[in-house]
Amino acid sequence: MVSAGQNPVIENTVPFCEIAPEKFDIEPFTLVIFGGTGDLSRRKLLPTLFHLCHDQNLPEEFSIIGVGSTERSDDDYRLFVKRAIEEYSEETIHWPCWERFSRKLFYVSGRFDDRNSYKKLSERLAELAKPAVRGTKEVIYYMAVPPQFLSDIIEGLSQCNLCKGTFNTRLVVEKPFGHDRKSAGELNTLIAKAFDEKQIYRIDHYLGKETVQNILFFRFANSIFEPLWSRRYIDHVQLTVAESIGVENRARFYEKAGVVRDIVQNHMMQLLSLVAMEPPIGFEADYIRDEKVKVYRTMRMMDNEYIDRFTVRGQYGAGEITEKKVPAYRDEKDIAPNSNTSTFFAGKLYIDNWRWAGVPFYLRTGKRLKKRITEISIHFKQPPLKLFSTVCEIREPNTLVLGVQPQEKIILHFGVKHPGIGNQLYPVNMNFNYGSDFPGAVHFPQPYERLLLDCMKGDQTLFARQDGIEAMWAVVDPIIKRWEENPATEFPNYIAGTWGPGIAEELIGSEGRQWRIW
Ligand code: BG6
Fold it and tell me: Going from the N-terminus, what domains does the chain have, and what CATH number goes with each?
């Protein structure tokens, strides 16, 4: 018994769980960025590296070598990087750190198909790479270049013995990883000649998003949702990756890629597998990736008839977004006036396994849609008896929403009795919002921050594995082929600033369901 005045020791309560900041175990490293002056480096990689340095997430000893074809000195490159940080940094810049960071920057100029470039790089590495605690020298090669340069670079590195042996190396490869299953397989074979799978980090920035990672925590660290997570209780699942931006300055890439290669094959497949996978046997890279691959392998293969009935393609025409006029896709800079590239995809997919048999997964993504929203929604079945149907004919089903962007949140919709003497059902929400539910001081790492650190630490969990990449292509290849063999005659078929072509509404509407509305 605790008497008054004593400090009560409260029993049976969960002790306050203070989560110590994660301790980073990053060895001294040298990061070599092929395409060190390209768009990705300027916009994302260099500002992110600077912030990591500023936030003291990088070790004392590190160096960054930009490799590019234009002649530049180290000092020129430092100026280039400073400008990139000024222009693209998303946070306030703390310049005192710049002095330290700039001393770590170096540049090697040369063509990717010229062996001399790799000799120069080799000399620079010999001079700059510092040994880690265990005596190895850690070198990361980041391929921030269009895919057509990969084979030259890998061959160049290989010929100069820069892949294995002298250094402990890792290779980071950006999407798109191939343009279909066959080319992805060929690329994997090419890379595998020089690097082991353990050294390869295939990046998909969606996996670095906080809420995307949270899907695993949410599903497998709580006991109340997982029992409901199956065909028994779930009517269908919706995945939306809506963008309000257009093709921007990436016309040449996008004309060849189109929406399926750009978003569905990678970002959407990753989201889908996190929602649908079985519990992994441990929280380690390969255990998680094994489960994800199983999802792709059990996805129902689509034949032409299925594709024609259950997928929708679209291309935006001129319209208005947030009261600003925007041009049609075909009128964008460097886009062919008769382009047949799709900027919108909607489709119904099935995962033919024990958990998901018969549950449709509706996917929708497009450019120049009304708003920027990435969201997964799980729509539960109606209760078996409509006890309240006499007073409320239309009942909203329970829905669980995992919002990825612009707000990172989780919402559960359910019905309550409206206060009053009547028996009125009323829909309400339980809300969790990352932004408002965590104290202001909590830092939300940008995807590249998280992914770069993971690569430096040698953690492959958030990177795609070879079999995963090929299995994702196997799902979308038939759609791409069918669409390419049958050019659309109706493009443009949606107005910029809307939710896409009307037939996308019919796709889901004809099955008695509807897309979520914002
Ligand atoms: C990229 C695509 O991978 O993802 C772009 O190539 C797209 O076309 C972008 O705009 C979307 O990323 P986010 O993080 O803005 O949703």
Answer: 29-174 (3.40.50.720), 208-447+466-509 (3.30.360.10)
